[in-house]
Amino acid sequence: MLRPYRVAVYGTLKRHQSNHRVLAGSRFVGECSLNSIVLYDLGPYPGAKLERSQGVVIEVYEVDGPTFAQLDALEGYDSTSPDMGLYDRKLVETPLGKAWVYVYNHAVPTTGAIRCGGWPR
Fold first, then answer.
1. Which of 12, 65, 111, 112 could share a disulfide with 41, CB 3.0–4.6 Å?
2. Active-site amino acid positions
3. Rounded distance, CA 30 to CA 12, Å?
């Protein structure tokens, strides 16, 4: 495991979004884009799938253990059954180094894919 943990966020955890407060006190590493995820607009938040894209904007943070656990709870990640929670998490390579990204576990709409840019649009 990476310690401190690095997480790549793409939705409500980004700066100026509703859940960013969870990352208060965490070190902002930087912003970049990933070609390995596609976002799907689920209404109040996006869900990422591991699919090729033209570059989805992410923010990378270094977080401590308690914050990482708080992120798992927020994202509905179940460490005992990762494929059963709302999100699973996967370690991906980013331009800023390896980071955990939360991947949506359920079906996504066939419309609303964000293959370039970021959320919100």
1. 112
2. 75
3. 16
